[in-house]
Amino acid sequence: MKNLYLVASIIGAIVPYIFFIDFFISDGIEITGFATSLFVNGAAAGFTADLLITSSVFWIYMIANKTPQVWLYILINLSIGLSCALPFYLYRREKANVAD
């Protein structure tokens, strides 16, 4: 599973950035426009709300379990996305369990 989590983390970093880069190339680096686009219609708003709730639960879980270097996963979540942060967390957790 460790290798699967690592591959998922890498894919989870690349795929969202393909869309982000495409957006910024076509619309420019304008954070207000980016944030507005997240809620442009019901489908986008639903996905955005789901992601925000899931990210919040992930943060709460890590904080409640006193995850070492929790700041790293939160930073990855904020700068890349949950699709990278969660599998990276699982990869590091698996790696630590194998070392025990």
User: Roughly how many Å apart are the termini?
Assistant: 16 Å
- Given the helix and strand composition, which structural class is it? mainly alpha
Low-confidence stretches: none
User: Topology as H/E string?
Assistant: HHHHH
Number of strands: 0
* Most strands sheet: none
Mean pLDDT across every amino acid position: 94
What overall form do the CA principal axes indicate? Answer: globular
Our count of helices gives: 5
Rounded to an integer in angstroms, the radius of gyration calculated over CA atoms is 15 Å
Q: Helix proportion of residues, in percent?
A: over 70%
- What percent strand? under 5%
Features:
globular, mainly alpha, 100 residues, single chain, 5 helices, 0% strand
